[in-house]
Design goal:
Length: 681
């Protein structure tokens, strides 16, 4: 039998557990970072444990200390700034903090493995996949070259990479994002570890690939008896895959317990707030999302008493004293003075309805849009090929309407947005804005139209000038494009900051002095400065924490209701798209698969790809997830360099037959207003 299955199917080695059944126990952990501004206590007295064969999820907003806790377990904190000031990390009955560096290196990879968030930066770009798999096998397992090759092929096959033998000679850039993450899992499994720590292992992946990766990890955990610590901010993932949950806030544990109890009966206001911030696909679309106002505290000077009190709507005088983490239910703990009297996690639905589009007719019309990119093959003399990023894409957006554009990475949705903005020129087709063809207007006319067409980018940090203050960023277009005087521009800047919910004094700050949500609000204020009729929102909330995401979604909906702005909302989060959009267009490999009104598409999707996307999206409720039987979508998005013949989805479609492999299905109206491109409907 292969060494990979040395434990047998689902078997657990009880000799590696502590007396309480835990394979890993973090006890009173304190991690400090010494900076030029002072000491940041990123983790402050945290304790959590995970039993053998169990999946524990660490959740919380960015900066809460979950990744730092994991790095402390691995003894990988950046030195000399980061250090473990107190606590114990007990693994298999031994304190990892007492081991020498050499002894800890023996543990890492062999007994404890870590899968990092971004596989492209974790894998060495100048080494082949085979060489990177071989390294831990030779160092920790003492294998020779022949044994390494056999084991490497076995590992790649185990994580679902086809043609494993030939893949060993390839480099990371030859693999897609999902396949690179599979390689990271294979490296983590190489030495039969007892524990795997996965730090946001699916953040960079599409929902369908995310589902494949997490199903793989959960299956391996069950079959090989591996313990998982899953770090994530995606509550749907936690509900689907975790046995236990530890919710962190400002360097401390706010709540811990079985996933079903934490989701069903949360015992901390922060947990309640997180659950209410998330739009859900399994419930009717309600009103504005409930948000957690404010931001996590500055860990250089954390507040005294309860650290969540400044953002808590239920705070009282007693919250000025520090609440201890105490047991409040069967195997459930909370650090709240009022843990026994928490409100339900389910958000009460309000009477707020999505603002209907204006009656002023069509504002944006895209007809047969095609965009091809020439690409050089294999160096200077390698010739060219064509990437067909968008093929025959058509849609309309009315005044005051939101059109949601969804699909996996590489489907062409961002390319469509850039062509609509005229940041890229279309290869074919027509783009009409208020009746004018953008491809044929003069440069002077296009300059004038750009005041009516604006964009909100995905990453607010890279889209803001780091050398300009917030006020300067918003003032520049007002003065250069609209001719405002300096005093008038300042008045307008103050109005815009009020409009997006920022304090006026923030106009004097630089982007690095703001949180992610505040930076995105600045991006929205900059887009609103021109008083546009139409805004392209390119993944505007994907880089934000769930609580901040809710604030931005509410803000966009409110601005649309007050100002009548039309949006092209590009995203991969189906629940967020549903919350904001009037109509939805689903794209796959450059083509439109389905287009319909929001309610019709989510209630009864027609295309197999849309059905797979909705199935793959997890619901933040363990009880709902237990009842679901998702239709698995296998394989990965084909390369746009060589798209499949016929229907581009046939390589992954459960309904595909010979006809699908030869005929490109037209987008046709199946029901009134409901279009789909499938031969089987």
């Amino acid at each position: 039998m292969s060494q990979l299955f040395h434990l047998g199917e689902g078997c657990q080695d009880t000799r590696t557990q502590d007396a309480n059944g835990s394979i890993l126990s973090v006890e009173g952990l304190v991690v400090e970072f010494h900076t030029s501004r002072g000491v940041v206590r990123a983790v402050d007295g945290v304790s959590w444990s995970v039993r053998a064969g169990e999946t524990l999820a660490l959740v919380g907003e960015s900066g809460c200390g979950k990744s730092v806790s994991a790095l402390a377990v691995m003894r990988l904190l950046a030195k000399p700034a980061g250090r473990i000031a107190a606590g114990r990390i007990m693994f298999q009955g031994q304190d990892l903090l007492t081991l020498s560096e050499a002894e800890m290196r023996e543990r890492r990879g062999r007994d404890i493995a870590m899968i990092f968030q971004e596989p492209m930066t974790s894998l060495n770009p100048v080494l082949t996949i085979g060489m990177q798999l071989a390294e831990p096998l030779k160092i920790h397992m003492g294998m020779n070259n022949d044994e390494v090759r056999v084991r490497s092929i076995e590992l790649l096959s185990l994580v679902g990479i086809a043609d494993a033998e030939h893949r060993l000679a390839q480099y990371p850039h030859h693999f897609s994002g999902g396949m690179r993450q599979r390689v990271m899992i294979a490296i983590g499994l190489a030495c039969n570890p007892r524990l795997i720590i996965a730090d946001e292992p699916t953040t960079a992946l599409d929902v369908t690939i995310q589902a494949q990766i997490l199903e793989l990890m959960k299956d391996l955990s069950r079959r090989l008896g591996i313990t998982l610590v899953l770090i994530t901010h995606n509550l749907g993932i936690v509900a689907r895959y975790a046995d236990r949950v530890a919710v962190m806030y400002a360097g401390r544990i706010a709540e811990e317990g079985p996933a079903a109890r934490v989701f069903g009966e949360p015992r901390h206001p922060y947990t309640v707030g997180l659950l209410r911030s998330v739009p859900r696909l399994d419930r009717p679309r309600g009103g504005t999302l409930e948000t957690i106002e404010g931001a996590p505290p500055n860990m250089l000077k954390p507040p005294s008493g309860c650290r969540f009190a400044p953002r808590c709507r239920w705070r009282q005088d007693i919250c000025a004293t520090d609440p201890a983490l105490r047991q409040v239910g069967p195997d459930q703990s909370s650090a709240c003075h009022f843990a026994e009297n928490m409100p339900p996690a389910a958000q009460p639905l309000s009477d707020y309805a999505l603002v209907p589009p204006n009656a002023g007719g069509t504002l944006v019309e895209v007809n047969g849009l095609t965009k091809h990119f020439p690409m050089r093959l294999g160096g200077f003399f390698g010739g060219f090929t064509t990437v067909r990023a968008a093929q025959d894409v058509s849609f309309r957006i009315a005044r005051g309407e939101t059109l949601g554009l969804v699909g996996e990475s590489g489907c062409g949705k961002t390319t469509v947005g850039r062509v609509v903005l005229q940041l890229e020129k279309a290869t074919g087709g027509q783009i009409l804005f208020d009746g004018e063809d953008l491809a044929t207007v003069s440069s002077q006319r296009m300059k004038a139209l750009r005041t009516r067409i604006q964009v909100i980018f995905q990453d607010p940090y890279s889209s803001l000038n780091p050398r300009m203050t917030v006020g300067g960023t918003i003032t520049e277009p007002l003065r250069k494009r609209l001719g405002f005087t300096a005093p008038a521009a300042q008045i307008r800047v103050d109005e815009l900051l009020d409009q997006v919910g920022l304090l006026r004094e923030m106009g004097e700050r630089y982007p690095h002095q703001l949180s992610g949500g505040q930076r995105q609000r600045v991006g929205i204020a900059r887009a609103l400065a021109m008083e546009p009729d139409f805004i392209v929102c390119d993944e505007p909330v994907s880089a934000l924490d769930v609580s901040i995401q809710g604030q931005i979604v509410n803000l966009l909906a409110e601005l649309q209701g007050r100002l009548g702005i039309a949006y092209l909302f590009i995203a991969h989060d189906l629940a967020v798209v549903r919350h904001l959009s009037h109509r939805i267009v689903v794209m796959y490999l450059g083509r439109v698969m389905e287009a319909a009104d929001r309610d019709a598409l989510y209630a009864d999707p027609l295309h197999p790809y849309t059905q797979a996307l909705l199935d793959a999206a997890p619901i933040p409720d363990p009880e709902v997830e237990l009842r679901r039987t998702p239709r698995a979508l296998t394989g990965e998005l084909p390369s746009p360099l060589s798209p499949p013949q016929g229907c581009v989805f046939h390589t992954r479609c459960p309904l595909a037959d010979a006809q699908c492999r030869s005929i490109i299905p037209p987008l046709r109206e199946i029901r009134p207003g409901h279009m789909a491109a499938c031969l089987k409907i």
